[in-house]
Structure formats: C-alpha cells, structure tokens
Amino acid sequence: xxxxxxAHIPLGQMGLMTDLPPGDVPRGALIKANNVSYETxxxxxxxxxxxxxxxxxxxxxIAVHDWWPDIVTQRLIxxxxxxxxxxxxxxxxxxxxxxxxxxxxxxxxKSMFVEGGNETAGADKKLFFFSSTNQVQVLTGDESSFQAxxxxxxxxxxxxxxxxxxxxxxxxxxxxxxxxxxxxxxxxENFTSNILTQNIFPGEGGNIIGAFVFKGRLFTFKEGGFxxxxxxxxxxxxxxxxxxxxxxxxxxxxxxxxxxxNDMIAVNESGSPISYNATESLGEIESADLLRFLQIENYIxxxxxxxxxEFLHSIYYEAKKQAFFTGRTSYRTTNNxxxxxxxxxxxxxxxxxxxxxxxxxxxxxxxxxxxxxxYGAADGYVYLMDREDRLVGGSAYTxxxxxxxxxxxxxxxxxxxxxxxxxxxxxxxxxxxxxDLSVDVFIDGKFIETxxxxxxxxxxxxxxxxxxxxxxxxxxxxxxxDGDPLGREEAQTxxxxxxxxxxxxxxxxxxxxxxxxxxxASLTIGFRxxxxxxxxx
Amino acid sequence: MAxxxxxxxxxxxxxxxxxxxxxxxxxxxxxxxxxxxxxxxxLVSGGTIPIGKDLTVEIDEIWSWSKAKSxxxxxxxxAYETGTVTLTQGSEAGVxxxxxxxxxxxxxxxxxxxxEWFKIASHTASATAFELDAAYPDSSGxxxxxxxxxxxxxxxxxxxIVNDGNNKIEFQETAGTTLTGTLTNGTYTPSDLISHVxxxxxxxxxxxxxxxxxxxxxxxxxxxxDRGGGxxxxxxxxxxxxxxxxHKTLGFDDENTTNAASVTxxxxxxxxxxxxxxxxxxxxxxxxxxxYGTDAESFHRxxxxxxxxxxxxxxxxVLKESGDGTIxxxxxxxxxxxxxxxxxxxxxxxxxxDNSSSIPLIPRKHVDILEDAATFYIxxxxxxxxxxxxxxxxxxxxxxxxxxxxGSLQKTGNYFGRTIAxxxxxxxxxxxxxxxxx
Lengths: 537, 438
Prior knowledge:
The structure holds two protein chains of two kinds. Chain A is 5% helix and 41% strand. Chain A is mostly beta strands. In chain A, a hairpin with a 4-residue loop joins β25 (314-317) and β26 (322-327). The two termini of chain A are 33 Å apart. The two termini of chain B are 52 Å apart. Chain B has helices spanning 7-17, 29-45, 190-204, 247-250, 296-302, 368-381, 387-411; strands at 47-52, 55-59, 72-76, 85-87, 93-96, 108-111, 117-123, 129-132, 141-144, 146-149, 152-154, 160-162, 168-174, 177-182, 186-188, 210-214, 221-225, 234-235, 262-264, 272-275, 279-281, 290-294, 309-310, 315-321, 327-331, 333-334, 339-343, 345-347. In chain B, 21% of the residues lie in helices and 27% in strands. In chain B, β16 (210-214) and β17 (221-225) form a beta hairpin. The longest helix of chain B has 25 residues, at 387-411. In chain B, α2 packs across α6 (368-381) and α6 packs antiparallel against α7. Classes of the chains: A mainly beta, B alpha+beta.
C-alpha cells in the first residue's frame, strides 16, 4: 500500500495562467498551452486545419468571406495582397486562380467584406469590400466581378476612401477619417442622397479604426483609445448623435472586435482584449482586460509582437464558444499564431495556437449550415479549421501544455517548502489512438526526464463487432460489451514511476506526431515527503 | 547496463534504486560517483562505512584482489665511508674528502668515536660539500672518519615492469580518432619508461612531437605535445585497449584528458594505500628473511641510533605517510651490500569514473555492495524512508563478503578440516605477523 501523499491535478478546467508567483499558480492552471483545446472539458490537441483550395492563390490572402448570394448558393471570396479578388464556386479551384477583380491598390489585412443589399424586396444581396486605398467595391448577387459602388460620397476620392463599414439601421455605414457615412436605406450603394453624414467628435483622437454593432447599438473606435456610440433611439435619424463612451479603450484594427456570448470583446491598441460587458458592470478598465483578468498579460506581451496589431483579425466561433485573435510572435513580419479563448466555462480559458498562420479570419457555413472558422494565409491557401484530423495542410504539429511548478501547498501549507521524493505520475486520459504522449518532467525548474504514455485503449478489450454491420448507414455497431467498440469513451489511467526529488515539479506534456491526438483528464502525482535539504544545483 | 560491471553501470543502478534518472539530469549523479568512490576506497584500503546513525561497518580485510600485481622493489644501500669529513662546531656545513657519486641527502652520518648520528640535509651528487640538518655540536675536526648510512627510504618503485597487461598507449591527434602505440615489454626506471612512452607516441603519431618527463619531486609523469600541424593532444583512458594501457601505471585516470599541450598524471607513482606483509629480504635477515614492521615509538625505543650497525635489517617503522600514498620507512640497520627488498602493498585505488572503462577492483560477485551503498547514501541524502533497507542490505553483503574471504583463506589452508588440539602442534610456532612485536 502506498504510504506517500497523492496529489490530483484535474486538467481542462483552467487555461493559461502565467502571471503569478510559481507557488500561487492554481492547481490545474497551465503555464504553457500551445495548440491545445479545452472544449471537451479535457485538454486535447487542438483540431486540425484543412487546406481548402487545391489551386493556390498567387498572393497572400488578406481577407476571406463566405458569400451566400442567395440561400442555396455558396461562394468563397478571397482578396489578396496583389490587389486581386478571387471567387470560388465550390470546386476548390478559385476558377484556376483567376481573379474576378484586379488592380486594387495596396490591399492589407485591414480590408474587409461587408454584406448588404436586399434593400427592397427582390433586390440582390451585395457584398461590399472596404480597403481604405480603393473605392468601395461591390459584388452584386452571384455576379463574377466586383465594381466600384454606383454613388460614393463625393469626398471619397484618391487617396481617401472608407476604411470599414457595416450594416446598421438598414443603412450601410462607412467610416473614413473621423466621419461616419450612412447610405440610403433603399440603396446601399447610394451615399449621395437620403444619407447621413456625421463627424464623430472631430478633432479628438485620430481616425476611426473600426465600428461594431453590439446589442443594437453602433460603436465606433478612434485612434487614441476613444470609443463612441450612436444615440439612435429617436425615430428621426436627423436626431441621431454620437456620444462618447470612453477615452482609453481603443481598437487595434477594424477586425479586432467580436461579440462573444453576451459580451463585446475588442482588442485595444496595445493588444489587450477588452470585455465591454465587464467594463460596463464593473466600471473599471482594469477588470475588463481579459489578459489581465486571466493573469496572462505579461506572458502574452512577452511572447507576441505588437507590430502586426493593426492587421489583427478576430472571430467568435459560436458552435464551440471559442474566440480567435490573430497575432505574431516576436520579430515576425507575418501572423503566425492565434490567441484562443474558450468560453464554455464561466471563466474563459486561454491558449495559444501556433499551428495556424492566419492572415485573416472568417466564418463559413459547413454542409449543415453551422458556421465554422476559416482563415486565409500568406501561402495563398484558405484553411478550414476545427477538423478532426490533427494536421494543418497535411502537416503534423505539436500540441503541448505545461502545468505550473507545483509545490503542493494546496494539499497542505507545510509541505510547500519540504523536499519531496517523487514516486509516480498517473495520467488519466481518454484513448485516442496507438501513439504516445510525451511528458517532460521538470523538478525545481530543471528538466529531468521524458516519460511516454501510450494513448491507446487499455480497457477490458474491444467489444465484438462486425464491420459494416450497420448496413447502408455504414456505421459499425457493437454486438455486446459496453457498447463502445473501440473503448474510446472509457477513461484510462497509466501510472509510471517518476525519478528525482525536489520542492516543485512541473510536467510538460506534448505530442508532435502526424495526425495524433490526446485527451488528458488529469495528472496524479505520488510523492513522499523528504526534509528541508538545501537545493542541489 | 547489461554487464553490471563498469562504474557507469553501477552508478546508473544506484540512481534507479534511489528514484533518480540516469540521463545525466539527476542532481545526485556526481554525488553518487563520490559515494561509490568513498565506499570503494574504504573497501580497498580499509576503514569504516557508516550505515546509519551511530552505526558503522569496519573494513580491515586484506583482499587478494586489492593487492598490487607485483611487489614494490626497494634497493637498500650499503654505507658510504670513503675518505674523511671536516666538520666545524656550531656550523651545519661539512666537507667530504672524497665526493660521493650520488646524493646523500636523507642519509645519516656518524663520526667515528662519537655516538650521535646526524642527518644530511643537503648534498649534491659528486660534490664534497654537504650540510647537516642542524649545527654540528661537537668539537671541530678534519680528517674525521665517518660512516654514512641510508636508513630512511621512500617506498617508491625503482623499476616499473611493462608487459602485455600494460603495454599500450592510446592518444588522439585528431579529435575522435584514437591512435594506439605498443610499448616494448621490459623493466624500466620511471624516467626511462616515460621516455620510451614518448618515443612510441612519436613513432605512432603524425606531425606532433611528444616528450615525456618524470618528476622525482612530485613523483608524477608528464607527457607534452607540441601539437604540430594543428593537432590536438588527448591521452585516451577509455579506448578499446584501456584494460592493457600504460596510462594506469603512469597514474592517469580512466578517462580521456582534455585537449592540452601537456598532461600530468593524477596519482603519484607507487602510491600505497596500505602495507600488508612484512618486507621480504632474501638474505641474512634473521630466521624468517623478513623485516617486520613496528610502531615508530617502539622502534625508536628498541633500536636507537646508537645501536644501528651494519647488518641486514629485520625491523622497520613507518616514519610518515602522506595523503597521496607516499610512505617513508626507517630500517634498524644498513646492509653491507646493496640488498633487494620486496614490499607487498595495496596500491592507492584509482578514482572510479562514470564511464564504461572504469571498472571497480571489487570482484563482480561482490560489486552490488557498491550499488547498495551508493543507493543508501543517496536515499539518506534525500531523507528517503527506504534508506535503512539498503543499509541493511549493504551491511549483510559486507558481512558475507568478509566471511567468504576468511572462509576462502581457511579452506585453502593447511589445517582446513583438521582438529588441532594444541597450538604447539601447529608447526613453526614463532611466526610474527606484520604489526606484532617480538
């Protein structure tokens, strides 16, 4: 019978939490979380990304949009850095990479697609394209080319064009410098008559960076941290006016704001996602900063670059209650990481995904009309995210996480400063396949060893089943046992000896194999108390 | 680790037993090697091994496996009494009328007609001048007859035997490429041996030029390379011929040296861990042809200088013993002619190294004692509650090792299986053992 102490560390309940003294990192919090997901309540390897187009586009993709000109027709529109826009009709070829529009100047990831049209019964849907360096473009219905809108505002001339837009109060709103333009309600291409044109606190701050509609209210964000909202409760639009909300929030880029659950999250100019719901309720900016709230601010700042913030993209993946923000690590000139938040628990759980190099993010409906995340990359491919295969574009990636350096004070304060003789590590997991999870062991910060844990089935054996017994459904049905033919719903525990002693221990779990996954439920450490010996270095 | 023979194997096993990794990342790895060396040294040389609070195991066995392969050979020198000396009262300086051909430093000198012996503190070979270790207290005189005798000897081998067991020299001139030279078997003085080693290296290697030297002061060997042509110089102690290499004889460890222009041996030549038998003198040394050791106080009481005469010595005492295994002994007489003395001893054991070329002296059947001991010490260090288990294991195995050793001696003895009723029936009765008094 084991006479030592046993410490159980459930995983998947907390995400990254790094900005704490090592001993204060809560049990189950992670100090490294790369390419992992928490959606199942366990820590799993982040799902893969499938390369959509078989015909590569000739230039980095800076904006991508799932375009439905009608309820049955799905198109994929991608704008590239070379000034061209491409349309895919579902054959994954983008018409052999033939552009439907060319000659747009200086496109960057700030560019955006905005859906509009359908102003009147029978009118086509329209897809507008804002780029700040070109006249606003429009794709009408399922036409095969973009055109400049028919009636732009008179002051939209070279080199000044709207930077972003959105639909609000039946109008297409466009924003340029410190001014808001709202189209005719009957024609979203008409910015010359029956329109609204309003300066938003002119002279204050810089240009308008972006706008967003949250809970029916239109917010605009200006350089310098200024946030305004449109007071449009009056039925007469002539009485609408802008009110200032704050002067120290700001927005990093036109794509840096999302609605997540009942919250608006906007990444500010310093790269912090700000929860506006929290801001409103708590009244304090500090409390609204998600990075600070999750205590990962320093970690994110130190591991990412602010250089690409003006091109940041974000999306909220409602089906999985997840948010993604693009980013880049230090010294990179293109995006190479995603900041991932999982909102399935009361407290968001954060991770970094370096497997995806997303230039721009978007949502695309799958065959079941569920919106799934996609992204366009610098390599000219559009990637469909959240794939079961653990591959990105056919290549393997590393999923890894590391728990805090535990001194087990959560068991008993008196054990924190004692040396411990570590006896075993038990990994509880849900079997995923015949491959291993590698666990690097760190004692008092020093790497000690790597232990492998097989992630395959180790239950009472496979149930008997007959391949294809489900008939035309193609589903294989078990003939007996626990009804789980592959035993995948059975949690397994593998216990292996640990070596070494010290005050603190941490585990870095990782897996890099092609199409390999893991689903870790908990770690359990068995140790015996030693004494207060000096640290051996 | 399958062989369980080398230090690296034993060290890894101890680490595993103690719950440590063997990949070099354990903070106890270097300490474990220290533990192994501590126990290994004690087993070889005698001493105590702590196995718990206020509990030790005493080791004082003369293991056959720990003895030197061949005895150390000393040459006792006859007295020098050619010519006369001149000495001045109150002065330490003196003059030989006839210059001795070799240095008489450390010799004792007695003036005819006087009782005292003086020690010669300085003298150079072939010189007439010398100095005593203090001012001459008696009346000045010249043309004084004298006797100079060498009574004190450092136990240093005058000769080194090279045979098939130690006639290889391995070294590198290109990193990673080991060259092997073969020495000519024979008997060498230390200086001749190191010169021969350098000659073999020069003929085996390429561009670099090697020289060798032996210091009679430090009793260590040095091999130097000019590292010509951009060569490196690494003396290899872990090569395929490590078991037959001269590097151990020269006093180098069982490891490769780092690239350097010269390397100097770690251990002194002929370092002695302990003397284990009376000295053997095969002529005129009383009944047993042996010189027996005794403690210094008894020796000086029983054999004062005034009684020192010319005859084959039959007693000696250890005057001093240094940390590196250098022992100086004093005899109770000096021989008429050069006399060969054979000294059986246990050499200072080489430090065990964490590699597969380092092999403990302990026979394989007992080598797990090292594993258990190192495990115990690590666990003790870690306050591991299993430490006492290994202490008990070690204690039991040590006891078994001692019993087996003594049993082997008995079972191979003349009287094994016989009942001896009276001691006087056991043959020659009066047989002194080393350390006993007559």
